[in-house]
Amino acid sequence: MHPFSFTKAATTREALDAGRRGGRYIAGGTTLVDLMRETVERPEALVDISDLPLREVRVTERGGLRIGALVSMSQTAAHPKVRSLFPVVSEALELSASAQLRNMATIGGNIMQRTRCTYFRDVTADCNKREPGSGCAALHGFNRMHAILGTSDSCVATHASDVAVAFAALDASVHLLGPDGERRIPFADFLLRPGNTPNREQTIRQGELITAVEIPALPRPLKSGYLKVRDRQSYEFALTSAAVALHVRGGVIREAKVAAGGVGTVPWKLPAVERALVGERPSDALWTAAAEQAAQGARPLSGNRFKVELLKRTVERQLRIVGGTK
């Protein structure tokens, strides 16, 4: 681990001033500290923001939900309003990491976490995300866990967050505060596909601080849930996952929100699946037909071709779980 300075911000203004000078924000530290230990990340200055007043979960005036950036994963998952309004969020969090990590990790840190690609974390390997222009060892290496959607010739690493998949499905937004004031970014625009600049992963600017994630109000009743398929039952990242939310009224699907994880360079929204569902009556045949649209645009690698079919099956299964069968 390389030398660095450490300060603890007592106020939001102190945090922003330190961030503007190049300090890296840290709260739970469950990702950043590991990367520093492995010398993947080498920040010169850390700014502890754990004392800032960003730990509230509240229902918005329109009936959505605002989750403070420093609320822990475990607190968010257990919050009664999260569980009642958007169970897909609670389920995604409870299927993430160990209980000990969920107690430390924050919502803001979770959506900022970097990829679990083994080549990114091996400083001896070529990785454009870690060292732009060096190449991507995963393209022709061991790529079973890598992405099939949103990839480029520069990077095929997946985004590891489970709850980010739920946020993407629910069309959440990220609230930011920085030197130039407040911004609100749609979640779909906050995380960036690699393209030719895989080292740039979010739209966040120098010195900006995540203050909250907000889920908009959606029609009630809303049934939702999260399914994660992995090699073992616990403490494992997704091979595929599906976040589904359905509003059914009068026996017809009026609104559908679907996204996938474990298969994209970012949490992958599935608009073709959503379009296939809206206006239709729930049925086994509908779930199968809609799920067939899940892998549109997939570019599998030598080691992960199985993910194309697995993605379709994962989405179909979760549609049946949330929407029921007839």
From TrEMBL:
Residues spanning the signal sequence: none
Keywords: Oxidoreductase
Coiled coil: none
Lineage top rank: taxon: Bacteria
Keyword Oxidoreductase: yes
Keyword Oxidoreductase in annotation: yes
Domain (FAD-binding PCMH-type) ranges: 1-220
Molecular function per GO: FAD binding; oxidoreductase activity
Name under which the protein is recorded: Carbon-monoxide dehydrogenase medium subunit
Organism: Streptomyces spinoverrucosus
